[in-house]
Structures are given as C-alpha cells and as structure tokens.
Target: Transporter
Amino acid sequence: MTSADVSPPGTAPDASPSPVRGWLAVLAVTLGIFALMTSELLPVGLLTPIGTALDVSEGTAALMVTVPGLVAAVAAPLVTVATARIDRRLVLALLIGMVGAANLASASATSFAVVLLARFLIGISVGGFWSLAGAMALRLVPKHHVARATAVVFGGVETASVLGVPAGTLVGDLSDWRTAFAAVGVLGLISLACMVAVMPKLAPESTMTFADLPRVFRTHLAVRVGIAMTFLVITGHFTAYTFVRPILQDDGVADGMISVLLLVFGIAGICGNFIAGALITKRLRQTVCGISVLLAAAMATLAVADHTTFSAAATLVVWGLGYGAVPVTFQTWILNAAPTATEAASSLYVSMFNLSIALGALVGGLTVDAASTVGVLWIGGVLAILVLPIVGGRPRDMAPRPAPPG
Model:
C-alpha cells in the first residue's frame, strides 16, 4: 500500500481522460515534484563548498535549507486558497518555472544574499506545488488508475528526499556546487516543458478556505497526532542530516567518499519506502514507531562511536531505511485521518513538514556554531524517539482508520 491507496471521497478524474496522455501528465508532475524537493534539500550535501565559496559559516549556509522550508510552510495553504479559481495546469507550470529560474540564479550568484532570495522563491514553489500536485493526479487518469497515479506522484517526494541530495552532492563533487544547482534548474525547466505539452486544462474544483484548516485540526484527533509526529521526526532528522557532511568529515571519512555514502543512504531509503508500503496496510502505528527507533538509533550510533567508512555506511543504511519510510507512512496517516477533508489535512501536513525542515536546519545551525556537530545528533535522536510515547502509548482509537474502498 502507498499513500495513494486511500482516495479522497468525491474526487475523480475529469470526464473520459486519455489514459496515455493522463499518465504522461502524471509523469510530468512527478518530475516536477522531484525537481522541487531536490531543490529544497540540495544544499544539505553542499554546505561546506558553498560556505567556502561565498565566505559564510556552515551554520549560516544552513539558512539555504531554513528559508525555503519556512516559506513553503506558509505558502502551502496560501497558494491553495489564493489560486482556488485558477486553472491548476497554469498554477503548477508557473510554480515549476519559478524553481528552474531560481536554481539557475543560484548557480550564477556571487553573494549569499542572492542565493537566499532564490531560495525564498523556491519555498513558494515547493509549498504551493506539493499541496496541489496529489489532487491533480486524481483528475488525470481513469478512475481505476487513480491510486497508482497518486502513488507515482508522491513517489517523486520520496525519491527526491532520499536520492536528490546524494545525487546533487555527487554532481557537486565531480564538478562544483554551481553545476549541481544549474542541473536541478534545467530539470525544472524540462518538467515545465513536459507539463505544458501533455497536461490538459484543469479547472479548479476545490472550495477550501482558511477556516477549513483549524476546523480539520480541531475535529480530528488523528490529524493532530500526525502533525505532532511529523514535527518531531522531520525536525529531528533535519537537525542532524543537514550537517551530515561535516559530521562524516569529523569522523575521518574522506571527502571524496561522502557522496558515495549519501548514495548508500539514498538506496537504503528507497528500500525503506517499499518495506513501509508493505507494512502500513495493517501495521501503520507500528511502522511509525519503527521509524522513530531506527532514526534515533542511527543518530546515537554516529554520536558515540568512531567510524570507518564501512561502519559509517552501515549506520547510514539504518538511517536511510528509517527516513525512506517517512513520506509514504506519514502521508497515509494524514489521508486516513481525515478522509472527508483531505485537501485541508494535506495542506496542514505539507506546512508542518516544510516548517520542520526549516526548524531542523535552524536548530542544527545554531548548535553547530555554538557547540559542535555532534550536538545535532543528540538533539535529532531525542526528538525522533519522543514519537514513541505519542503514537505507541495511547489508545488505539487515536490512530486513523483506512477509508472504505470505493
């Protein structure tokens, strides 16, 4: 099962969509969301070379993750409501075009201020695009393909989360960080061209208002739990993972091996995604608890042990398995938690996810500058393990139930 296995009631693809063109549009949206999420997380593996080139500390360079995360958290509901009457194809095209331009601007920037401005624009795109993209897939393909199409779209988030950073780091190591930003910018423009070519006009169907956000939060206990566990896990993960490069360097890992280790992390993350997909149908709560334990264990191991390249790789496999399971598991929890208000619940989830990315990078940056890199591992591990008493030690009716089929 994936996040797409729970389809919002009342949603259906537009009348008689072409299966071939619909799937091409789904793939274009997936490419766009992959480019978006890779853009947001790309600086994680490049903090050291960017900071050196632009003469800022690694803690300050982490603002490249904090700024788009904060902006995306606000943009998710704002863009959804503000564009309620605009053709969704146009909205998505504008947002992905902005990502392409912003990354190309970052690639040619000569000052950190210009990079931060570009990152601000990326935050708007990430928040707006992600909050709309899943619902768009429901209208692009015939009804019996809806679940699979939505899974593919959310797979763009998952793949970017676990492979975007290592791939970008590898490009940066083989060339330089500017080339990595330029490559993602070109990827965004390719996605724009594909969407314009294959996506049909999609008249807006949503009537979501700002009042729906506090209402769904107030009336659904499982939504509140989902938002809380998203905050803890994502903040904890990015408090530590934003600084994984200097952490590994401090452990004595050769600089040229870091991109390889991040690729190991990414491959483990893909495996974690599939493992979680097989578990969450009947064991959603247990999967969330398992994620918490894996993340905390990996961070604690990196904090207390001296590592060779091999042992660091083994620890990153554990970390990758845990984090790779997060998007599909948490998205499924949110969709199950409010099956009659999925757009509002998803907007809250996207906001909290991106806010937590920003807070994690900010807390990690302050910790690295004020204390040491090892401190971010302890903070991240503690936040991750706090999910256990929230999810594992409460009544069973707190967890969401799958929506009935059909």
Observations:
- Residues 1-13 have pLDDT under 50 and may be disordered.
- The CA atoms of residues 291 and 322 lie 5 Å apart.
- The longest helix spans residues 146-174.
- Residues 3-398 form a domain with the Growth Hormone; Chain: A; fold (CATH 1.20.1250.20).
